[in-house]
Design brief:
alpha+beta, six-stranded mixed sheet
Length: 163
C-alpha cells in the first residue's frame, strides 16, 4: 500500500512540476548550453595561474579553456564581467572543480550544482550562481584534466539571435 501511495505522490508531483514554467525555462537554458557546448562557436583561452585571468562572457560562445599547472594539478582563472545582476548557469564539458569570487574576492555560493543534465550528455558540470554587476573570477581546479570547455547562459528565458 505504501508503495502505491508513494508512486501516486511522485507521479502527481512530476505532473505538477511539468506544468510549471520554471522547468520549461530551465530546459530551454540547458538546450542552449548544450548546443553551444557541442557546436560553438568556440574561442580558445588559457587560464591564468593567478589574478583574474582572460575574459569569458555569456555571448553564446563555448570557451575552450587550457588549464595551467597549479598546486595539486591543473587549473587557473578566467574573468567574467557581469552587466546584469541575475542568475547565470555555468555549463562545463568536464567535472572540473570551479569556484566563483566577486570583485572584492568574496566567494559566491552556487544555488545549485550538478555533474550532468538529463537533456544533454555533453554537460558534465552545471552550476547556477547568482551574480551581481561587476567582474567575477572563475577559478578552476585542481584537476587532472588539461582543459575544460565552458558556456555561460543567463538562467531563465531570454531571446537572442544566433550569429
Amino acid at each position: 500500500m505504501m508503495k502505491k501511495l508513494l508512486s501516486a505522490l511522485l507521479l502527481s508531483t512530476s505532473l505538477l512540476a511539468a506544468g510549471c514554467g520554471g522547468d520549461e525555462e530551465e530546459a530551454h537554458v540547458d538546450e542552449e548550453g548544450c548546443e553551444h557546448l557541442q557546436e560553438g562557436p568556440a574561442a580558445a583561452v588559457t587560464a591564468a595561474v593567478s589574478g583574474t585571468g582572460p575574459a569569458v562572457s555569456n555571448d553564446h560562445k563555448r570557451y575552450d579553456i587550457a588549464l595551467v599547472d597549479i598546486a595539486g594539478g591543473k587549473g587557473g582563472a578566467v574573468s567574467f564581467a557581469v552587466s546584469e545582476a541575475t542568475d547565470y548557469v555555468l555549463y562545463m564539458s568536464a567535472p572540473v572543480p570551479v569556484t566563483v569570487t566577486n570583485s572584492s574576492g568574496a566567494a559566491v555560493e552556487f544555488e545549485e550544482s550538478a555533474t550532468s543534465s538529463s537533456l544533454c550528455t555533453d554537460i558534465k558540470g552545471r552550476h547556477v550562481v547568482p551574480l551581481t554587476v561587476g567582474t567575477h573570477t572563475l577559478t578552476f581546479g585542481p584537476s587532472t584534466l588539461s582543459s575544460v570547455s565552458l558556456v555561460i547562459e543567463e538562467s531563465g528565458e531570454h531571446d537572442h539571435a544566433h550569429d
